[in-house]
Amino acid sequence: MKVAVLDINGKDTGRKAELSKEVFAIEPNNHAVYLDVKQYLANQRQGTHKSKERNEISGSTRKIKKQKGTGTARAGSIKSGIFKGGGRMFGPRPRNYGFKLNKNLKRLARRSALSMKASEKAILVLEDFNFDAPKTKNFTAVLKALDLENKKSLFVLGGSNNNVYLSSRNLKGSEVVTNSELNTYKILNANQLVLLEGAIEGIESNLSK
User: Fold this and answer.
1) What is the Cα Rg of the chain in Å?
2) pLDDT tens for residues 111-145?
3) Phi first, then psi: what are they for 155, rounded to 5°?
4) 3-state SS, residue 166
5) What is the bridge-based pairing of β-strands 2-6 and 12-18?
6) pTM of the model
7) How many CB atoms lie within 10 A of CB 6?
8) Rama region for 71: left / alpha / beta (φ>0; ψ in -120 to 50; rest)
9) Burial, 192: exposed, middle or buried (Cβ in 10 Å; 0-12, 13-18, 19+)?
């Protein structure tokens, strides 16, 4: 499939970029997408939640009343979770929420996400550009020219570009990544995917293995 290449002013350069059907025009696998997004979100969780259990509470371990004959339930230490100020029973403990997925499934998920965006006509191809210095107003001008000021956008670069990255960092609605950092969640979370010409070959190379 062919897509028109635009410049940073939003004008058609007259050139076309060829997008591979094996990456941008497959039948999406919704379950693969679900698993990949679930893994990404799980990996974002710190898992540092913790509550004190009875062995971590300050207090006496003396049995507070005799075992039988009181007419009420048996009770041991005042640190038991059934008493006010006692430890929490079955409370959260630090844990890792991450889980593994095989590489082929993750590639399938990313190809599916890219195909979804292509079918929604939510992919733009932009010629490679750079800024002389990192300035937010330069990147804002590009967004305005592409009519992306009020949309969530994801710019995918062919390689590291510090000036472009730093120029976009203060803008909440826009994100810049390299083709190796591209993942399913970020693709789907953006309203518009902007691929720089130099990124297309890398994306197709990474996802067609």
Assistant:
1) 27
2) 999 999 999 999 999 999 999 999 999 999 999 99
3) -95, 130
4) helix
5) antiparallel
6) 0.84
7) 19
8) left
9) buried
Kindly report the number of other CB atoms within 10 A of residue 52's CB atom: 13
Both tokens of 75, joined, read: 């009770």
Tokens of 28: 């999406």
Q: What is the Cα 40 distance to its own chain's centre?
A: 6
Give the per-residue pLDDT at 209.
Answer: 64
Q: Are 20 and 204 in contact (CB under 8 A)?
A: yes
CB atoms within 10 A of CB 21: 11
Q: Residue 146 corresponds to which amino acid?
A: L
**Residue type (1 letter), 102:** N
Q: Token pair for residue 201?
A: 């070959």
109 within 8 A of 40, measured Cβ to Cβ: no
CB 54 within 8 Å of CB 79: yes
- In a 10 Å sphere around its CB, with 0-12 CB exposed, 13-18 middle and 19+ buried, how is residue 120 labelled? exposed
Q: Containing H/E element for 177?
A: strand 174-178
Name the stretches of the chain with pLDDT < 70: 209
